[in-house]
């Protein structure tokens, strides 16, 4: 099994280009199933989750073409199956996002229940309730969500709690429903806006994406189209935290600074000088040690849970005590035990972690437990004395494109070994 080995102690300097967002490209790939013609997607990050989604679309019968820049064209006109198997869904929860599109376009769908994952139980009840509100008959049998509706009907639906995936599934389905759908308490993440823009390029009528009230006027059919995926704000944030922790100066290019307010505010509080110009962000730490910051995760535009582990790593070596509250997932502190192995001082009480910054971490073998936990261990390794070896990095490959090449380009000493 592959591992990443990091030699700590180098301030990061230079420039890095941000890839397309994992959390935007996955729903967008699923959305292509709604169309009556080919959909071309560019700025696609080369990630394991993208490979899995493409495999799933292929199993459903869609035609897939991949160009030399990893642009992906999906031709959904050859889809012959509406069944998403457990084998694929279990490896990637986002596969449940084919449910809404298959149901809306083909009148029925069977998608394996995704099950829990390391960070929490992650139920899909809101996806199901939202589609039922549009008139779908849904049962859960033998581990599959079985959905049926001759034609979905527009309705007003209020999400009990904010869910990114449920908003996406119901939004996609509503584009082909008869009449108007109003989604209240919708998720406002930038990836929802990107999905809506792709759907609009396919002929969908959507207003309000990016607010908590999305209005969709259903159309009889969607056509093919083109879309370029929004830059990844979590990858961007991860590189900025790396720069801040190592006391370096890094310019991230091809980012979307306007999607990053909460993260940039916390980096400023940690003592970083931040300059934004167009699609670039420069972070200059000037060799200073970061100051500890308090974090509470919450739906966008508040601080993203997907940046919690990285800021935990920053607090581990910061000056002072940082309190981290995780409000989205019930079990998203698994990196704590691994950070402790590197010499961190962290106490966890329920959903709160109190991190007392230490002067130095020391390298050790550690194990990644989920995607962002893996990133936090690399960040800690970048500042630890000696060598840190991170095992189970397949989690990392789900969501970071060429992370070791990108970090090496900034002067980090990092390599992948078999
Ligand atoms: C592929 C993708 O975009 N993944 C992101 C998406 O995941 P995902 O879409 O799975 O996350 P949700 O926003 O749905 O989950 C938020 C909370 O709602 C709960 N919930 C969700 C659905 C449901 O039907 N019932 C329910 O109770 C979840 O257990 C969780 O506690 O948003 C999360 C929260 O920003 C991010 O961490 C993930 O990186
Ligand atoms: C939790 C994450 O992703 P997913 O929802 O795909 O598991 C993440 O990107 O940090």
TrEMBL record:
2-(S-cysteinyl)pyruvic acid O-phosphothioketal sites (modified residues): 117
EC number(s) given by UniProt: 2.5.1.7
Molecular function GO terms recorded: UDP-N-acetylglucosamine 1-carboxyvinyltransferase activity
Active-site residues annotated for this sequence: 117
Subcellular location(s) of the protein: Cytoplasm
Entry annotated with the keyword Oxidoreductase: no
Enolpyruvate transferase domain location: 6-407
Pfam families hit by this protein: EPSP_synthase
Keywords recorded for this protein, A-Z: Cell cycle, Cell division, Cell shape, Cell wall biogenesis/degradation, Cytoplasm, Peptidoglycan synthesis, Pyruvate, Transferase
GO biological process assignments: cell division; cell wall organization; peptidoglycan biosynthetic process; regulation of cell shape; UDP-N-acetylgalactosamine biosynthetic process
Transmembrane regions: none
Protein residues bound to UDP-N-acetyl-alpha-D-glucosamine: 93, 122-126, 306, 328
UniProt key word Repeat: no
Leader peptide range in chain numbering: none
Catalyzed reactions per annotation: phosphoenolpyruvate + UDP-N-acetyl-alpha-D-glucosamine = UDP-N-acetyl-3-O-(1-carboxyvinyl)-alpha-D-glucosamine + phosphate
Gene3D superfamilies: Enolpyruvate transferase domain
Similarity comment: Belongs to the EPSP synthase family. MurA subfamily.
Protein task: Cell wall formation. Adds enolpyruvyl to UDP-N-acetylglucosamine.
PANTHER family from the UniProt entry: UDP-N-ACETYLGLUCOSAMINE 1-CARBOXYVINYLTRANSFERASE (PTHR43783)
UniProt-recorded name of the protein: UDP-N-acetylglucosamine 1-carboxyvinyltransferase
Organism: Marilutibacter spongiae
Organism lineage: Bacteria, Pseudomonadati, Pseudomonadota, Gammaproteobacteria, Lysobacterales
């Amino acid at each position: 099994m592959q591992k990443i080995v990091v030699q700590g102690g180098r301030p990061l300097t230079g420039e890095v280009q941000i890839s397309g967002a994992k959390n935007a490209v996955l729903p967008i790939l699923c959305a292509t199933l709604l169309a009556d013609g080919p959909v071309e997607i560019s700025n696609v990050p080369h990630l394991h989750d993208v490979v899995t989604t493409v495999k799933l679309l292929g199993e459903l019968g869609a035609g897939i073409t991949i160009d030399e820049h990893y642009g992906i064209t999906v031709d959904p006109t050859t889809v012959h199956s509406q069944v998403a198997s457990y084998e694929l869904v279990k490896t990637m929860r986002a596969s449940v996002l084919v449910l809404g599109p298959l149901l809306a376009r083909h009148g029925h769908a069977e998608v394996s229940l995704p099950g829990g994952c390391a960070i929490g139980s992650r139920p899909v009840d809101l996806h199901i309730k939202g589609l039922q509100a549009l008139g779908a008959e849904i049962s859960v049998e033998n581990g599959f969500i079985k959905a049926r509706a001759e034609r979905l009907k527009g309705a007003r639906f209020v999400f009990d709690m904010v869910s990114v995936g449920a908003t996406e599934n119901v939004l996609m389905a509503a584009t082909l429903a008869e009449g108007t759908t109003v989604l209240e308490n919708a998720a406002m993440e930038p990836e929802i806006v990107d999905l809506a823009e792709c759907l609009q390029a396919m002929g969908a009528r959507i207003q309000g994406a990016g607010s908590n009230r999305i209005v969709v006027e259903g159309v009889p059919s969607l056509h093919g189209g083109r879309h370029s995926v929004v830059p990844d704000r979590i990858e961007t944030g991860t590189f900025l935290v790396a720069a801040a922790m190592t006391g370096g100066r890094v310019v991230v290019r091809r980012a979307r600074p306007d999607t990053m307010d909460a993260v940039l505010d916390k980096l400023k509080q940690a003592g970083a000088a931040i300059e934004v110009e167009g699609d670039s962000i420069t972070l200059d730490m000037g060799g200073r040690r970061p100051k500890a910051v308090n974090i509470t995760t919450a739906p966008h535009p508040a601080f993203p849970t997907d940046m919690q582990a990285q800021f935990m790593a920053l607090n581990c070596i910061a000056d002072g005590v940082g309190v981290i509250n995780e409000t989205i997932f019930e079990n998203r502190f698994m990196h704590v035990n691994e950070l402790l192995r590197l010499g961190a001082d962290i106490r966890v009480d329920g959903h709160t972690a109190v991190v007392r910054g230490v002067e130095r971490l020391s390298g050790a073998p550690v194990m990644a437990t989920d995607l962002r936990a893996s990133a936090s261990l690399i960040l800690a390794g970048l500042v630890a004395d000696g060598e840190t070896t991170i095992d189970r990095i397949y989690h990392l490959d789900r969501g970071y494109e060429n992370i070791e090449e990108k970090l090496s380009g900034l002067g980090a000493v990092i390599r992948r070994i078999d």
